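Discussion board: Methods & Data

I've been asked by a reviewer to show the raw model output for two of the constructs in my manuscript, not just the figures. I'm not sure how much to include, so I'm pasting the format here to get opinions. Each protein appears as its amino acid sequence followed by a line of discrete structure tokens. Is this the kind of thing reviewers expect to see in a supplement, or should I convert it first? Here is construct A:
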Amino acid sequence: MDEVEVVVAHSERATLRVGDVFLKVDADQSRIDVEVEAMALVPVPTPKVLWRKPPVLAISAVPGTALGRLGEPSTASPAAWAAAGAAIRTLHDAPLPPWPGRGPGELAAELDAECERLLASDVLPSDLVMRNRQVAEAALRPWTPVFTHGDLQITHVFVDGDEVTGIIDWSEAGPGDALFDLAILTLGHEERLDDVIAGYGADVDRDVIRAWWSLRSLLAVRWLAEHGFDPSAPGCEVDVLRARM
């Protein structure tokens, strides 16, 4: 008999696995709406939607294994990372989704507010916060929107050998900056950036990618700590911030 595996669980959402079926429970139905619609639109492999009964979405497992995990060395080949870059390029070349995304002004306001909270609560040293806030500024420039995944963590890309077999968790998808997706995929795995860019097949501004590493980590640290995760574990968000010092 298949057992119930808790993949992730916190106060906003939970994902359970039973055999080859994933059950996603989300208090915010708009995220599930985006996920279902995005998977129907994108030209890359995604899970199959089996059924939906709010607040639960049932999807199939995708074959293969995750490209890696944050804080752990990736055993995937350079060719697999390049294939992930190629899949991202295919996504970014797709027509934009019909819902709006966030612009640099909105993100700048969110970042400033979060940095104020980090400084007030002493979650991180002030010099670490201020240095990374300076680095993050390079990401807050005008960009031409593309269809982005929006949360392209390394655990969300599955490969079998050197082939991408599926990309999961589309609830943050929408128009956005192409370099944000590339940055989130390589967060904590900077040594893989060259492979991803080779597969992506376009020149990218590495300073902007570094800026997104800082911005994403600053926004995530406090939330992760408050929801039972450890952003200070080796190779995770706090180490990403320290690397910019």
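Construct B, same format:
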Amino acid sequence: MPLNLPDKLPAIELLKEENIFVIDNSRASQQDIRPLKIAILNLMPLKITTETDLIRLLSNTPLQLEVSFMKLKSHTSKNTPIEHMMTFYKDFETMKKEKYDGMIITGAPVEQMDYEEVNYWDEITEIFDWTRTHVTSTLYICWAAQAGLYHHYGVPKYPLYKKMFGVFAHTPNDILNPIFRGFDDIFYVPHSRHTEIRKEDIEKVSELEILSESDDAGVYLVMGKNGREFYVTGHSEYSPLTLDEEYKRDLAKGLDIEMPCNYYRDDNPKNTPLVRWRGHANLLFSNWLNYFVYQETPYNIDDIR
């Protein structure tokens, strides 16, 4: 089944070029199927890029999804045209009375700030609380994962002495958990962050379970509320060239940035990246949608509690 997306969303044409099956609202309205309602709170600066990355992964499922994009009223994006935001995004205030089968909250470029210093902290924590009564399962990514763990469970973050930057090997802790259906014993994930959460802090919280770790990148995947919350510290959704673009951008700014680890062929930035995370990324999103959204959400969406 395809994704049901807003008419004229730029990602539609971009993904059609990759032979990914998506349809717009006009065509989807003719299909007699109750789609899963998925909300995406996109906090990344380059919103069209992030939309495309996420939709690419969400499309790899036989389920029909109706995707809605949420924005914060307390924050204005500086890197995305206002026309795009007005056309495709809605304020949380206009969406808060609705219920959703699943939700994705992305990372944000504010990780080196204290949480309470972020100018939209009050609004986003209201959204975090709202998900617990209005969403069947929520996927928190990167900064959102750290922020969600801090807000819900008091798990702190710590600065790293250097940026966690590259593609790292990870292992599942509980291979029988449905989120790992089809996974190999070792899988790879891109990371790009200046802060971390620590295992010993999470283990103090009985409601949380660490599902996956990396010897190099630390805690990767944490589950809360029996699958109603997933906290993902890496960027499984990244496209092949995202780390390359970040690296070259920071070099151009004169920042002290090391080459991303385990990323370029022969560790030579003149070579193309060696992509080793797409299989895992597709499984992560399709397993989440199938086992923790579709299998758990009520047919009557208003019954979500």
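Answer (T.O., handling editor elsewhere):
This is acceptable in a supplement if you add a one-line summary per construct. For B, something like: Residues 3-158+195-239+279-303 form a domain with the Rossmann fold fold (CATH 3.40.50.880).
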